[in-house]
Design the sequence.
């Protein structure tokens, strides 16, 4: 099958030729004819399968009936609404829709939070047929009467599972209530939990299910491997693997924002071109990091799930899980970054003793045992302990070979504000307590405490007391 077989308008064909697309991907081959017929669709497809074109090409085709070059905003009501969970995905989808509709008079606009509302407001007020939005910011615009949803005839929920994970259900319900009852609905999700099915039942009408891969199936072309190391050797191992395999264009997943920042900083200290992308970065910082990564100015993007989900970065040869995800389904999403569009890819995961259960959950979900990697040739660097430790916490005698305890809580609290950590998951260090950033010279007493307990996991209170020099008085 070729794109020419769908009977799409010559303006769309031209755009596809400009993109270099000749053959539709399996999800496109299935979804495009169904959407063109006006049916609701429930799509089981991961990012990287071409699902964006799968829904946006027929949307553009159907909306062409209304396309016009009038300057009047009234002639350009919002007719298609595409909802995405993250800003990055919104931007990415918008770029695709823009590219596919570039030779038509249809207008597109993307709205998402974390940016000035003004340019978005101006674009909305000029009139726009296709709006790509994150739910919260869309509702802000609705409240400010910058947008009317009264003429929406097509609704897409992209990455619906992630929207539920991120707590968008109430926003989605509010948005759905603002739409005309008569409309076409398309929902895409990589996974189908009971909650997703419930959402689908509540807003899809007699949907056709299109599926390209069994849900929770890992990409066939991805070679997976897991390495077990001590928790405090994980960073060394990432650096070792990056060097040994001469990896460029790698996404490394971290479960926490602070973990992502630290790892990126650590890799930079090793002379690598790395940057972190997570929910605490400003929109501009995230975009800049992403752009630099796409241009090859950065080789390693260290990301949290929320920041990385749905990113369209092609030719990714490898993803690394610095932390195993708390949610096994996230493993499937993560490794979906590689092995795309026919290319093969590597998915490397690193875990320690305490992650055995997480690994078991993943293997149960994907119904595979992931091969255990051989670590001969890897020697964790002990020199870095002193070098990294700018505050002198480990310069005490005997501490140079002591494992670093980056993720073992020393009294710091997890940052629960942005919800990147799942409820019930182990609390990990998200925010550095400013106390630890103060210059610190170990007193004789604390040095003794350190030396006395070089490898034991520190209990938060005790460790704090030790660092304060309050445990043992000489
Ligand atoms: P998506 O799953 O929609 O994020 O798409 C993944 C990647 O595949 C994007 O970079 C698209 O530009 C690309 N793509 C989508 N459809 C096709 C196609 N039919 N042929 C080649 N590349 C495609």
Sequence:
């Amino acid at each position: 099958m070729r794109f020419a077989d769908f009977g799409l308008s010559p303006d769309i064909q031209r755009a596809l030729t400009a993109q270099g697309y000749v053959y539709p991907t399996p999800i496109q081959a299935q979804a495009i004819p169904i959407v063109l017929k006006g049916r609701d669709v429930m799509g089981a497809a991961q990012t990287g399968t071409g699902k964006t074109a799968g829904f946006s090409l027929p949307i553009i085709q159907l909306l062409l009936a209304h396309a016009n070059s009038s300057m009047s905003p009234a002639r350009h009501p919002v007719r298609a609404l595409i909802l995405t969970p993250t800003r990055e995905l919104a931007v990415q989808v918008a770029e695709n829709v823009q590219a596919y509709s570039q030779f038509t008079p249809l207008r597109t606009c993307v709205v998402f939070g974390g940016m000035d509302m003004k340019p978005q407001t101006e674009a909305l007020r000029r009139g726009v047929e296709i709006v790509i939005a994150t739910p919260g910011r869309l509702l802000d615009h609705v409240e400010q009467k910058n947008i009317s949803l009264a003429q929406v005839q097509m609704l897409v929920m992209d990455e619906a599972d992630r929207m539920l994970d991120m707590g968008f259900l109430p926003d989605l319900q509010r948005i759905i209530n603002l739409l005309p009852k008569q409309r076409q609905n398309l929902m895409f999700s990589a996974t189908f939990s009971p909650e997703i099915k419930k959402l689908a039942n509540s807003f899809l009408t007699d949907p056709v299910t299109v599926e390209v891969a069994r849900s929770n199936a890992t990409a066939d072309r991805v070679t997976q491997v897991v390495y077990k190391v001590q928790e405090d050797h994980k960073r060394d191992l990432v650096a070792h693997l990056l060097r040994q395999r001469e990896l460029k264009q790698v996404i490394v997943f971290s479960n926490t924002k602070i973990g992502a920042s630290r790892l990126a900083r650590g890799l930079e200290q090793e002379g690598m071109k790395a940057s972190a992308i997570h929910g605490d970065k400003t929109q501009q910082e995230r975009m800049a990091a992403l752009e630099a990564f796409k241009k090859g100015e950065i080789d390693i993007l260290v990301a949290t799930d929320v920041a990385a989900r749905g990113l369209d970065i092609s030719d990714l040869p490898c993803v690394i899980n610095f932390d195993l995800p708390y949610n096994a389904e996230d493993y499937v999403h993560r490794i979906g970054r590689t092995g795309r569009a026919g290319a093969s890819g590597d998915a490397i995961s690193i875990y320690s003793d305490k992650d055995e259960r997480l690994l078991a959950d993943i293997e149960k979900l994907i119904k595979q045992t992931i091969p255990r990697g051989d670590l001969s040739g890897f020697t964790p660097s002990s020199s870095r302990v002193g070098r990294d430790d700018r505050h002198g916490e480990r310069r005490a005698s005997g501490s140079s070979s002591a494992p670093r305890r980056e993720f073992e809580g020393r009294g710091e609290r997890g940052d629960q504000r942005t919800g990147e950590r799942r409820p019930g998951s182990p609390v990990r260090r998200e925010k550095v307590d400013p106390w630890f950033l103060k210059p610190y010279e170990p007193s004789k007493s604390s040095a003794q405490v350190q030396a006395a307990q070089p490898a034991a996991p520190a209990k938060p209170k005790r460790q704090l007391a030790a660092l304060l020099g309050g445990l043992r008085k000489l």
Observations:
- The longest helix spans residues 87-100.
- The CA atoms of residues 140 and 146 lie 9 Å apart.
